[in-house]
Design goal:
By secondary structure, the protein is of the alpha/beta class. It is built from eight helices and eleven strands. The chain is globular.
Length: 267
Amino acid sequence: MNDLSHGIAPAARSAKVPSHSRERITRIDERTSTLVAFETTRPADYRFTPGHYARLGLGPEDDIVWRPYSIASPADEARLSFQLTRVPEGEFNRRFEGLRTGDEIRLDRRSFGFLTLAQVASGGTLWLLATGTGIAPFVSILADPCTWKRHERVIVVHSVRRAAELALGDVERAMTRFANAERERLRFVSVVTREALPGAFGARIGALLRDGRLETSGECRIDAHGSRVLLCGNPAMIQDARAWLRERGLEPGRRGLPGQLATEGYW
């Protein structure tokens, strides 16, 4: 995920410690012609908070191309999981196309970002609104036991162009860590904008907020008292949804105080 945030996870740094490690691709899953899920090895000392993103690099030492990608794996997983949307004209994508299982990829030793549960107050219903590969950090958040201790319910809204891009399988795998009590507190809302899918909405997230269909689907009103919302996806969705949510009184945290709204966008 190309991401504009610059939060850096605290880490002890030393002049003797390289800025990045050399990892290996352990799995490549070609989900559609444009969507790829992949995993890499993980250094024993690599730390991140669910919702963070990593910087991955490809190429020789004197010509590494770096790109940010949200981490989809649980914080205690032995591998790091990512999702990539193919961009034919992108240099990172061009280099990634030639990769096979076992090939090398660079990993910045830091993790980054502000799309974490610490940015929003505890309690109420946690809404996770995503477009495309913006679902990746939410898969990691769902696998975190802290999520289910902090919030009464979680509603995941995933908007994609084609049904094959929906991340329901990733969400279900994240929830296998929990008992039925937690699973019953989760709702997954599918949004597919370029083809018809029974049971899925066909409009964009902003429109579904404005006409009330998301609230009806979630069986609760979105307001500052009872809702916490994380947004991750394309800039148009972020801008549209954030404007509507702020009209409802939801605000980002300020000066270390958690709010009701946190966002992270592509590009």
